[in-house]
Design brief:
A: 632 residues; 4 domains; seven-stranded antiparallel β-sheet; B: mainly alpha; two-stranded antiparallel sheet
Chain lengths: 632, 160
């Protein structure tokens, strides 16, 4: 029926226009409703920026009209073809709100659901502004509990041993008025995420996330739940960036968020993801911003923080160490000979009654008991606590309550927006097996073990799409290597956390000892242990099986290597020294020594030196490269 | 929260109980679990969706940790469910005499900045009373809080 009336109306407009041309028509001939629509059409409201924002229209090659809403949910559109037709949607909205509006107002009424559309259309059409009807009880309930006093952009950083989290995530925090009384725990979160439902993990999961198989939805839950999720369970440090939005800007934004309640968007991991939607909201809250447009191909959460920082809307930065970071920092600050007490007391609270412990200064006792308690909390964070563990914890808390405790702050590391940019190009020169060569490299993303780690997690790397082309002095040019994906995790926390270190790598590479240096497909993974040897020095030992596949099946090699190495971090500089002993399928043992050194020159510039010497039986080769790296 | 404190006070006096008090049986504070996911599969999921699974969009109600309870959420007002959700952190903060969970509860009750230090101290000193066993429920913790605040010159005004 709606469609019918719109068609009628379009015919009517066409007629009016024809009549206008002949200067015969008088405005009074039209009914007030028709005038409203006529006005909307004449003003091209459907082409305005705000209408595009409210309906999430973007240029699209998939639609005949060249425009498409990114919302993928019929409940969001009032016109049948609203997803592709801004004008039809505009007219249907005017009709539903102002012309054929149902008399009884309840939560399902368009006036309750599309509050921003109504406010804006009233302004544009010269209608008196009206508050959202009292009968919209769900709207009022939600707006009453979610504060609009101030807003922060929240960035849970990467977490220990999970390079996949390195891209980060962003969400918004909305604060009530008493936020200045340290009540962030009373704030609300606003989060855009893929709705994976209760589906169990399957191989298609990751693919679906990338290809857009999931619906993305906004969700809004109490902020402390997010703090628990990220800070205590996933063990991610959290950065909170207070933004300078005013209360009226936030009211405007939240009204629109309300329209998106339960509404499905197409979710694409690389661009239209959590961070992209939040940028859109900020752009809507303050029309002078244009943040979402900066991200045309990919939206990496950490990059959106940088964009927000460039837009100068951050007024304050706050760092929240995760449970694990807090434990690590407080543990490291204990005198070396007292450290063993932590695990002893965590394992058996009665140890704290031993005279040797009781003789310690009470402030030190408190510090140790606190870390022991945190450690129990950490170790039981994913499981239901056993009765035994619960009572051990209660007894530790009782001890703690009898001791004087002082707040001990954790040092604030350099913040994510100060980190290097995420794409890299490199130029290098070197010499391998007595031939000189030059290299050109490009890496799509993101950070490796040696890149300057300010704003990144130490000992973690994630590399996607890293291509290296090489040209030898004699003119021979070739694809030297192509890392499709490479994940690295060499943790310095194994001392107390007992985690595994690991690597995973898939790509193309060449091997100087094999089949005349031909290109082969490689898959390798490694697991092992690492530990902090000295401050800023991590030692590791990894076992690494690898599969090397040349173009014919008979040319598959399975190797196993033992990798022993150290990583040193000093300020931004990183060095890696490694000895690799490999048992290969086709030869006797191969021994290699590697040295890599990364010297940052500025935030986005670095020099990298690499040296590699390998020996198989009596045959040895040496390769050395000097590389300049630029991050953008 | 203030209302809850008031009704907790009533409870303490009259021994009636909430018909459907959040917390529930077998929901003692010591046994709470934090819901979380682990394993490579979930890392991969997190990598490609930035998401955790879940159907809740605008959580007007939310369950407590490990306890199958949903209560109406009147956040920014009175919520025992909320208190239930942070009890674990609260117990640690009370034991230490400082921490965000203490600040949050104080803010919820409306304790003014000038009385915050006092509030922290009183809670800290009474840890053993507030958390006598691992089976203590959030309702019982509140009852005890009301009792100790009522005894304190500076804090009693917040529960009347």
């Amino acid at each position: 029926m709606l469609k019918h009336s719109i068609e009628q109306f379009i015919q009517y407009v066409a007629l009016c226009l024809a009549l206008l041309c002949s200067a015969q028509v008088r405005a009074t001939d039209a009914s007030p409703e028709m005038l409203l629509m006529q006005h909307a059409v004449a003003a091209d409201l459907h082409e305005s920026k705000v209408w595009r924002q409210l309906l999430h229209y973007q240029s699209s090659s998939r639609s005949p009209a060249g425009i498409e809403s990114q919302v993928d949910d019929t409940r969001f559109f009032l016109a049948d073809d609203g997803k592709f037709n801004p004008q039809a949607e505009l007219l249907a909205t005017i009709e539903a709100l102002f012309i054929n509006a149902a008399a009884t107002i309840n939560d399902k009424h368009p006036r309750c659901r599309f509050v921003s559309r109504e406010t804006w259309l009233r302004e544009q059409l010269g209608l008196p502004s009206k508050p959202v009807p009292e009968a919209c009880s769900l709207y009022h309930e939600w707006r009453d509990v979610v504060g609009s006093h101030s807003m922060s952009l929240v960035f849970p950083a990467s977490y220990l041993n999970s390079p996949s989290s390195m891209f980060g995530h962003t969400l918004l925090r909305l604060d009530p008025e008493n936020i200045d009384d340290s009540s962030e725990w009373l704030s609300w979160s606003l989060n855009f995420a893929a709705d994976t439902g209760s589906e169990n993990f399957s191989a298609g999961y990751a693919f679906k996330g990338i290809a857009g198989g999931y619906a993305g939805k906004f969700n809004s839950i109490p902020y402390f739940k997010k703090l628990q999720e990220y800070g205590a369970i996933e063990n991610r440090d959290i950065w909170e960036y207070k933004l300078d939005f005013t209360e009226s800007e936030l009211n405007r934004m939240l009204d629109h968020v309300w329209e998106l309640r339960d509404i499905s968007f197409d979710y694409y991991f690389f661009r239209q993801n959590c961070s992209y939607r939040l940028l859109e909201l900020m752009d809507y809250a303050r029309p002078s911003l244009n943040l979402a447009n900066e991200f045309q191909l990919t939206t990496i959460p950490a990059d959106t923080i940088k964009a927000v920082a460039r837009a100068n809307i951050i007024t304050d930065t706050h760092y929240r160490p995760s449970l694990g970071t807090g434990i690590q920092a407080r543990y490291q600050s204990l005198p070396r000979h007292l450290k063993p007490w932590v695990e002893r007391i965590a394992d058996n609270d009665q140890s704290a009654s031993e005279p040797a412990f009781q003789q310690l200064e009470t402030a030190l006792q408190a510090k140790i008991v606190r870390v022991a308690n945190d450690l129990i909390t950490y170790r039981s964070r994913r499981t239901s606590r056993s009765k035994e563990m619960a009572s051990r914890r209660l007894s530790l808390l009782k001890r703690l309550s009898a001791l004087p405790t002082t707040e001990s702050k954790v040092d604030v590391p350099s913040s994510p927006e100060t980190g290097h940019d995420t794409r890299t190009v490199s130029l290098g020169v070197g010499r391998s097996s007595k031939r000189d060569f030059s290299d050109i490299g490009i890496r799509w993303s993101y950070h490796d073990l040696l890149d300057r780690n300010y704003g990144y997690l130490k000992g973690a790397g994630i590399i996607l799409g890293d291509v290296k082309l090489r040209r030898y002095e004699d003119g021979q040019a070739q694809l030297e290597s192509f890392d499709v994906v490479k994940l690295q995790s060499i943790s310095d926390r194994a001392l107390i956390f007992n985690t595994l270190s690991w690597n995973l790598s898939v790509g193309l590479a060449r091997d100087r000892f094999r089949l005349n240096n031909r290109l082969s497909a490689n898959v390798s993974g490694s697991v092992g242990k690492s530990t902090e040897l000295l401050s800023n020095t991590i030692g590791y030992a990894l076992i690494e099986p690898s599969f090397v596949q040349f173009n014919r099946m008979e040319e598959t090699f399975v190797d196993v290597a033992l990798r022993l190495g150290t990583l040193h971090y000093y300020r931004g500089t990183a060095a890696q020294l490694e000895l690799k002993i490999a048992a290969t399928q086709d030869e006797s043992a191969r021994v290699s020594g590697l040295l890599n050194l990364n010297l940052p020159l500025a935030r986005n510039h670095a020099l990298r030196l690499s040296f590699d010497r390998s020996r198989v039986q009596n045959n040895s080769t040496t390769a050395a490269t000097v590389q300049y790296r630029y991050y953008f | 929260m203030k209302k809850i404190l008031a009704s907790a006070l009533l409870l303490a006096c009259s021994s009636t109980t909430f018909a459907d008090a959040p917390g529930g049986p077998n929901c003692g504070w010591g046994n709470m679990l934090l819901e979380g996911k682990t394993g490579l599969a979930n890392h991969m999921l997190a990598l490609t969706t930035n998401g955790t699974s879940g159907n809740a969009t605008f959580g007007m109600t939310f369950g407590t940790n490990g306890c199958n309870v949903e209560g109406p959420l009147t956040y920014g007002g009175d919520s025992l469910v909320w208190f239930d959700g942070i009890l674990d952190e609260y117990s640690t903060a009370v034991a230490m005499g400082h921490g965000e969970a203490l600040e949050a509860v104080a803010a919820m009750i409306g304790v003014e900045q000038t009385d915050r230090a006092r509030f922290n101290n009183v809670m800290h000193e009474n840890f053993a009373l507030l958390f006598p066993s691992t089976e203590t429920t959030s309702q019982e913790v509140l009852d005890s809080m009301v009792a100790v605040m009522a005894e304190d010159e500076k804090l009693k005004k917040y529960i009347s």
